[in-house]
């Protein structure tokens, strides 16, 4: 039975702020995405500011500014974001390339055919229509590696902190497990119902010509650890994530990776996308419609 045909999709998502869907992708589709990412990783051109070992405060500041600029201009590109300590002092890898990356983003959905096909798939479109979105657009996409013994925990946060809209509640994350996501390798944890409490922190661009390039308004609340519920997902399964639901993941302490493809969708009808968000549409890549 296709769960997308039942009201449970809408009710559970709206009540709890997240929803697990088994079998959104087949094992073969998951493997195809992973194989393509292996090719991208093998062929990647590592930016110089990532490779360089800095030794002075001034140089360290330049490195941080280079990293920040590389991030803030990545919305319409495919760029590489590395874990700490994966290069030696000559800028060479000290771990295998495929173990060096935290994520690749943020426009896989636009430029990589396999990822584009998954993002615009009939299953995803049907699901989003079930949730009542009229003019959904794709904001960004990422491939997250969650490498064993390297990738740290992801602290509690709300996606709306980084993808702010007026009104709130217009952003949905689609988080697809390309391998089993387990308690041991860093599955997601949620506070059910926390999407009803608004947000207390917003990431904003700073005025042009200043550094750092982004800052935060407000602070993340202190969350009671007992309220978090683990959400393991089988390979090919997906989690729908409300933009305001509080979630986190633990470090990967297993001997297995936890590869994920994730993207964010926004209902654009009667929605204002904050001009202060780090991510902005460009002439090269306006936010594309999900339904086309």
Question: Can you lay out the helices and strands and say which pair or pack?
Answer:
Layout: H1 8-16, E1 18-21, H2 27-43, H3 48-51, H4 57-72, E2 78-82, E3 101-106, H5 108-111, H6 113-119, H7 122-130, E4 136-144, E5 154-157, E6 165-166, E7 171-177, E8 188-190, E9 201-205, E10 214-218, E11 229-231, E12 238-242, E13 247-249, E14 260-267, E15 272-273
Antiparallel strand pairs: 1-12, 2-3, 3-4, 4-14, 5-13, 6-15, 7-12, 7-14, 8-11, 8-13, 9-10
* Assembly state: single chain
Helices, by number, come to 7
Residues in helices, as a percent range: 10-25%
- Class from secondary-structure proportions: alpha+beta
General form: globular
SSE succession = HEHHHEEHHHEEEEEEEEEEEE
Instruction: Tell me how many strands there are.
Output: 15
Gyration radius over CA? 19 Å
- Please state the average pLDDT score: 90
Could you describe the largest sheet, including whether it forms a barrel?
7 strands, antiparallel
The termini sit apart by: 26 Å
């Amino acid at each position: 039975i296709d769960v997308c045909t039942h009201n449970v999709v809408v009710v559970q998502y709206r009540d709890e702020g997240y929803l697990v869907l088994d079998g959104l992708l087949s094992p073969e589709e998951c493997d195809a995405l992973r194989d393509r990412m292996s090719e991208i990783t093998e062929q990647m051109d590592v930016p110089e500011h990532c490779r360089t070992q800095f030794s002075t405060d001034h140089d360290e500041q330049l490195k941080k500014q280079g990293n920040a600029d590389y991030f803030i201009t990545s919305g319409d590109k495919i760029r590489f974001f590395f874990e700490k300590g994966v290069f030696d002092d000559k800028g060479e890898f000290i771990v295998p390339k495929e173990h060096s990356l935290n994520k690749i983003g943020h426009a896989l959905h636009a430029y990589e055919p396999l990822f584009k096909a998954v993002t615009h798939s009939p299953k995803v479109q049907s699901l989003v229509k079930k949730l009542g979105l009229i003019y959904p657009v794709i904001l960004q996409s990422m491939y997250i590696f969650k490498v064993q013994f390297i990738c740290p925990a992801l602290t509690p946060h709300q996606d709306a902190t980084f993808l702010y809209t007026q009104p709130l509640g217009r952003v949905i994350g689609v988080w697809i497990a390309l391998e089993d996501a387990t308690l041991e390798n860093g599955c997601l944890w949620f506070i059910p119902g926390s999407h009803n409490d608004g947000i207390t922190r917003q990431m904003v661009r700073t005025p042009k010509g200043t550094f750092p390039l982004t800052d935060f308004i407000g602070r993340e609340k202190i969350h009671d650890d007992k309220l978090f519920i683990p959400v393991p997902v089988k390979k090919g399964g997906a989690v729908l994530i409300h933009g305001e639901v509080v979630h986190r993941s633990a470090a990967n302490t297993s001997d297995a990776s936890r590869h994920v493809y994730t993207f964010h969708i926004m209902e654009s009808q009667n929605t204002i996308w904050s001009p202060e968000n780090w991510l902005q549409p460009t002439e090269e890549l306006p936010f594309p419609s999900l339904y086309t």
